[in-house]
Amino acid sequence: MTWEDAILWLREHEGQHELVRQCYYDDPLEDAAERFRASEEWTATRHLLRGLLPCRVLDVGAGRGIASYAFARAGCAVIAVEPEASAVVGRGAIQRLGRRTNQKLTVVEAHGEALPFAAASFDVVYGRAVLHHALDLSAFCQETARVLRPGGAALFVREHVVSQSADLAAFRAAHPLHALCGGENAYPLAEYEAALTDAGLRLRRVLGPLEDAVNFFPATQTDVDGMVTRWLADRLCGSRTWPARWLLALPCLRRLTTRRLSRRLDTPGRHFAFLGVKP
């Protein structure tokens, strides 16, 4: 199947409707895009990019354009890069979304490894679940750094991570779309970090699956708070949750605990996010 075929197949099967909705593959597209704009993930995205927005944004691997739409609604000048032509999950969908919502979404056919833009053209390069699809991770990151202006930021969220290459098969076997159309991938954390820093970006934040809402969905902040509270209670508080909740109210301890627990997780394909700045 193509990616479009896989999404259409999922839409037709009642047991997959919640997955379709969680992935923002449902229609009307403008409703899905507005739901993303109202999400904890988008709020967290804006927080990570505070001080930069509104600005010139390149959304790489833009898919259906939900993030491009959110950036445009935030007052940004957005260019969406998407290699797929599909009217369901590609450039056609983004163009339709722009027309129906009266948002200026410029759409360009390209891959992240060869961006057709001049150096220092953008204030922000953003990608949602796109780096792990790179045909050449190093070249993708080099191009990202090239098109960023000095002081600009690259934010990549929901990137699949494996602890070792041998875990890739388990991740692919569990991924619902890979069984239908293939194409899913994941890298060890160190490979992402090396590719970004070798490209000349200074990593400001590397956020694990429980450290920031950009990585949570479809879990919510409440879900993650409960998980972290139980983990801390079992280890430090004799399984009592009220002391754990009190301790997690301390910002420094909360950051330390969520980071430690995130780094202990070993689920193949868990999400990480990377915020890099061009010096």
Describe the overall structure.
The protein is of the alpha/beta class. The chain folds into two domains: 3-215 and 266-277, Vaccinia Virus protein VP39 (Rossmann fold); 221-262, no CATH class. It has 13 helices and seven strands. The chain has helices spanning 3-12, 17-22, 29-37, 40-48, 66-73, 91-101, 137-147, 168-174, 178-181, 189-198, 221-236, 241-248, 251-264, and strands spanning 56-60, 77-81, 105-108, 122-128, 148-161, 202-207, 270-277. α3 (29-37) crosses α5 and α7 crosses α10. The model has no long low-confidence stretch (mean pLDDT 96).
Keywords:
279 residues; alpha/beta; Rossmann fold; seven-stranded mixed β-sheet; 13 helices; 7 strands; 18% strand; globular
**Which structural class best describes the helix and strand composition?**
alpha/beta
Uncertain ranges: none
Shape: globular
How many domains, as an integer? 2
CATH level-4 homologous superfamily of the largest domain: Vaccinia Virus protein VP39
Computed CA radius of gyration, to the nearest angstrom: 19 Å
- Main pleated-sheet profile: 7 strands, mixed
CATH architecture of the largest domain: 3-Layer(aba) Sandwich
CATH structural fold name of the largest domain? Rossmann fold
By DSSP (H or I, 4+ residues per run), the number of helices equals 13
Taken as a percent bin, the fraction of beta residues is: 15-25%
Secondary structure topology:
Layout: H1 3-12, H2 17-22, H3 29-37, H4 40-48, E1 56-60, H5 66-73, E2 77-81, H6 91-101, E3 105-108, E4 122-128, H7 137-147, E5 148-161, H8 168-174, H9 178-181, H10 189-198, E6 202-207, H11 221-236, H12 241-248, H13 251-264, E7 270-277
Parallel strand pairs: 1-2, 1-4, 2-3, 4-5
Antiparallel strand pairs: 5-7, 6-7
Helix pairs in contact: 3-5, 7-10, 11-12
